[in-house]
């Protein structure tokens, strides 16, 4: 990995980074109630008596949430604990109706695992300390009234996975790569949609600095950062801030901070609490979770092909490492490309076409691959027409543009618009003869040694045939004609 150092007046400083990623579990109901979890509902319309902490209401674990967390652990080769337990994390806040959060401290569902990140040719393993399951709090809204704050409990009780990394990252770029890779894994598994803008995935960023080789310094935690770019910016600002404090003779305070995306800076929020400040104790309303082998085997069997395995499979098919990385970065792209391969298209030209023509067109019209007007089966038909010589590259581009506009099949477009490529040598020879007759000066220069004019004659021939001539046949026949 590229070395990242902060240049200070007293020498180089190293940054040490750990991330606590909160990922909302994909489920139709909350962790301990049957209330819905859909994003964007009217405030307080998805709140059960359990979520509102009404007296006498008892939590019941959602099996699907537990299953998704176990599958996530398996996807990062983590230890799955057959016995785990929920704890109460006690603190008072207006959006926490119970006065405590049900979480896991002492006995989490998922133990140690790892995530591999890449920077060019270099590969680095980032350790994951644990994944525990917990319920989310509600949301305070301060901008609805000039003197009042409102509470929306729609998120109260929503299931979260807290994925805690080890302090193994040493640069903003590494942290960004880790977060992107983790998001990709979650989306492949289907345990979290990874939508950071909607708050279904966010990160608490732990940062400290030290002189290389020295023990870890005092860390700060910047809460609820909701994009990869902001995580990287928060790390860079916070690391530089800490170096400035230390080099001016100050000390770093262990505290919780907030990131301001408008200014790219962090500010102090409160002193950092330790576990004992939350008075954790086992939740008396919930029995320990005990998982049997059949449940674990079913979870493992349900896992899809993951990004790294898919990328290696693509490379084994002859696809370049760059294209394989691009095609596996987002699960929707990989699914689209797999469907294209299943239609029988050769992998290498298919990968080049998707990463070039398709991505370029989708970017131009502002659509994602999920919204593509061209389906994998239609793309396979188009590429087959190129492979069998029916369409030249330029004609294929024309057909593709019509497909984007109309959604029609390429075969239909070719027939209706007369765009079929011709390899008729007699017709092409006749056109070549006309081109040479109309351009005697260029012909003389070419035969005098100016071979660069060959491209001119190819262009004139293709233009005269409206781009429908087979380019290879044109090249072959032109060379013969020019040699005569």
Characterize the structure shown.
It contains 15 helices and 16 strands. β1 and β2 form a beta hairpin. The radius of gyration is 30 Å and the shape is elongated. Helix content is 39%, strand content 19%. It starts with 5 loop residues before the first strand and ends with a helix. Strands 1, 2, 6, 7, 10, 11, 12, 13 and 14 form a 9-stranded mixed β-sheet that branches. Strands 5-4-15 form a 3-stranded antiparallel β-sheet, with no helix packed on it. It has 484 residues and is of the alpha+beta class.
Largest sheet: 9 strands, mixed
Roughly how many Å is the radius of gyration?
Answer: 30 Å
Low-confidence stretches: none
Q: How many helices? A: 15
Strand content: 15-25%
Distance between the termini: 60 Å
Task: Calculate the mean pLDDT score and round it.
Answer: 92
Instruction: Give the proportion of residues in helices.
Output: 25-40%
Can you count the beta strands?
16
Instruction: Report the structural category.
Output: alpha+beta
Shape assignment: elongated
